[in-house]
Amino acid sequence: MLSTKKLAKMTLTIALITSNTILMFTVPDLILIFNPDYSSNLFYVMNLCKGLINAAIFLYTQAVVRSAFTGTRSSILEKTVIKSAMNMNGTGNKRFTISSQQGFIMNN
């Protein structure tokens, strides 16, 4: 089940990416449809930058993606790994332990 905070962050991410797409892709296309004589060089550069801005939005709003990109551990990532390990520990007779390195070690 998603927490309210995670749902709010995902909603913010989707809203920012949708706004970016409308601003950088849809609006220039509409302008060119209604005014084909307009110089389209600026619109071409805006369309190229759209992907970079989307990546920046993901890195800014999603802590797990940011920590994976930078190679650092965040408390959110550690909590997710620990929670997954505890859930797996209760489902079978295999024992999962968290090591001091990134990831977990499975002991039979």
What does this structure look like?
- The chain crosses the membrane at residues 12-35, 41-60.
- Keywords: Membrane, Transmembrane, Transmembrane helix.
- The chain contains four helices and two strands.
- It is mostly helical and 108 residues long.
- Strands 1-2 form a two-stranded antiparallel ribbon.
- It has one domain.
- The protein has helices spanning 4-34, 41-61, 63-70, 75-89, and strands at residues 95-98, 104-107.
- Structural category: mainly alpha
Oligomer: single chain
Given as residue ranges, the uncertain stretches (5+ residues, pLDDT < 50) are: none
Fraction in beta strands: 5-15%
Q: What's the helix-strand series?
A: HHHHEE
**Shape label:** elongated
Largest sheet: 2 strands, antiparallel
Number of helices: 4
Provide the gyration radius in Å. Answer: 21 Å
Domain tally? 1
Task: Please give a quick description of this structure.
The chain is mainly α and 108 residues long. Helix content is 69%, strand content 7%.
Key structural traits:
single chain, 108 residues, mainly alpha, two-stranded antiparallel sheet, 2 strands
Please give the structural blueprint.
Layout: H1 4-34, H2 41-61, H3 63-70, H4 75-89, E1 95-98, E2 104-107
Antiparallel strand pairs: 1-2
